Amino acid sequence: MHMTWMRYTCGRLESRYSYSNTIVYNNFPWPEAPTDKQVKAIETASQKVLDARLQYPGSSLADLYDPLTMPSVLVKAHQELDKAVDLCYRPQAFISEAKRIEYLFELYERYTTGLFAKEKVKKSKQSSLSGI
Predict the structure, then answer these.
(1) Does this entry carry the keyword Methyltransferase (predicted)?
(2) Sign of CA dihedral 121, 123, 126, 131
(3) Which residues are CB-neighbours of 94 under 8 A, at least 6 positions away?
(4) Neighbours of 88 (CB within 10 A)
(5) pTM for this structure?
(6) Could you give the angle at which helices 72-89 and 36-54 cross, rounded to 10 degrees?
(7) Fewest beta carbons within 10 Å, which of 42, 43, 81, 87?
């Protein structure tokens, strides 16, 4: 979820993402109210990712996450983690990244509705006459 959000909200410098805490991280729409069971599922899936990495002690993260050579056990662990995170947002699977980002922007809009509304300032007669 976060990587999808990052790809759509992050700036770029050449081909590299320019990650910002004020634009990307602080504005990421977290799930509304994950249950204890959902949080536990994420913790379990996260541990599986770490355990899969430990199976390759001589490999750097760059080696492990090379899309051409990523170990299948690590791919599977990440897929399980992604599914656990997705289930915190809604019970049905996202059929595409486009649907995922659409959902995230709708959630962001729901979270921020009313935050940026300007209050109308009433002008008093005194302040309007002072400009004459």
Answers:
(1) yes
(2) positive
(3) 86, 100, 103
(4) 17
(5) 0.77
(6) 170
(7) 43
